[in-house]
Fold this protein.
Amino acid sequence: MSWERINFSGATTVLVGSDAFTQGLITQMLRAFGMNAPTICETGAAAKTHLEHHYVELCIFEAVLPDMDCVELIHWVRRENKSPFRFVPVVVLTSYTQHRHAALARDAGANLIIKKLPSPHLLFDRIAWVAKASRQFVETAKYAGPDRRFSILEPLDGKHRRENDGTAIADMDRAVDRNAVSEHSPTRAFST
């Protein structure tokens, strides 16, 4: 996949989480990428209020929030909110390493799950991937979010790190109905 230059200038982001240290580091990274300083919401309820009244081009949620799990907030973004905002890319930061925690966020409709705290290089690569990857929006009775069935044969930076990196990523969920693909793509918010 060819990665052309991405212009993050002026992109709006909401960062949801109560960890001040994480907030500060992620804010510095996003500003270094050329984005506006993110709007910071410390709770899921505050994020819902903000998102009901402001458009953003990227959501970054911590996995555990003081008043709810990020899964509940993602579900609200994808299912209960019927505006075009429901297609916005959602990145989850988690300190949990168990597969089940990542699977819950993925199954709620998150675009990516990143172990916190990411390096600036990793965060930039992941946001760039979300901005450039063509993943259609899928909506079924049990799932709403970016199509989870995708494969990339080359890593973002072109450097393979494991023996199996050259093979396609395994299908995450074959149970999603292929006929439920929407024409909406949540990944076109950033300009190129």
In short: Helices lie at 20-32, 44-53, 70-80, 99-108, 120-132.
